[in-house]
Design goal:
By secondary structure, the protein is of the alpha/beta class. α1 crosses α4. The chain has five helices and 14 strands. Helix content is 27%, strand content 29%. The chain has a single domain, classed as Class I glutamine amidotransferase (GATase) domain (Rossmann fold). It is globular and about 50 Å long. β13 and β14 form a beta hairpin. Strands 2-1-3-4-14-13 form a six-stranded mixed beta sheet, with helices on both faces. A four-stranded mixed beta sheet has the order 6-5-7-10. Strands 9-8-11-12 form a four-stranded antiparallel beta sheet, covered by helices on one side.
């Protein structure tokens, strides 16, 4: 693999949408690129900033409180929606975690009579329903498209969300729940996947516990197969993954 490649990442609202330490996901991407000799460029796009749909390989939107999601939802529609659709259409990765996942969908219901409009990159809607928050360690099995050969891969993390997210007819889940609640607590599905647009409730953060998925994101964003990335010594990272699976009871 050529060391002259550059991974260009844009973090949307890094100061507002980062309540679950999800900035750690960006650090994992940065270090795993650096260790392989891949240049890494990180930029941010905040409130009232324009967004270039051609300038980045991966666009990242983390989780935030309802108050901050209101601000970001309005700004996404006004200043960034067209660029995100443009980016997704050309093959860039768009990754939303928790609140970011909700805002990538069609709508997010904050309470009776109050709903935020999402950017509609994926056909999902998030609603409020009676019942407790969906909290705890979670694990899910992804399809073989994310692994090697016909072997399914497993993601482990932590979820904490009051909304229930339902997939529309044009959406497919990211994975099948092995432990935890997932999108809505009863469907058995977690997250959403539409080609290169991914949404998930797994945080804690996600990528330090699942470096194989970080490598999938890097390779896909750079137009490579995962097997084309240089191998790394992941003994500690695999131990973290095993620990996260154990915490979920898997």
């Amino acid at each position: 693999m050529s060391a002259s490649r550059t991974m260009r990442v844009c973090a949307l609202y890094p100061d507002l949408m980062n309540i679950y330490a999800d900035r750690g996901n960006l650090l994992v991407l940065q270090h795993r690129c650096s260790w392989r000799g891949i240049d890494f460029q990180l930029s941010g796009s905040g409130l009232n900033d324009a967004l270039d749909g051609d300038a980045h390989d991966l666009y990242y939107l983390g989780g935030g409180q309802d108050r901050d999601q209101r601000l970001c939802a309005d700004d996404l529609l006004a200043n960034k929606s067209d660029a995100l659709h443009q980016a997704a259409a050309r093959g860039a990765i768009v990754l939303g975690i928790c609140g970011g996942y909700q805002l990538l969908g069609n709508s997010y219901e904050l309470g009776p009579g109050e709903a935020l409009q999402g950017v509609g990159l994926v056909d999902v809607a998030t609603v409020r329903e009676p019942g407790p928050r969906l909290i705890g360690n979670v694990a899910m099995e992804l399809g073989a498209e994310f692994g090697a050969g016909d072997r399914a891969m497993v993601l482990a993390g932590f979820e904490n969300h009051g909304g229930r997210t339902y997939l529309g007819s044009d959406a497919r889940p990211l994975g099948r729940v092995l432990a935890g609640h997932g999108n809505d607590g009863h469907s058995g599905f977690e997250g959403v996947w539409r080609r290169n647009v991914i949404g998930t409730y797994l945080h804690g953060p996600l990528l330090p516990k699942n470096v194989w998925f970080a490598d999938w994101l890097i390779a896909t964003a750079l137009g490579l197969g995962p097997g084309e990335l240089d191998a790394l010594d992941d003994a500690l990272e695999l131990a973290a993954h095993t620990g996260a699976l154990r915490a979920a009871g898997v």
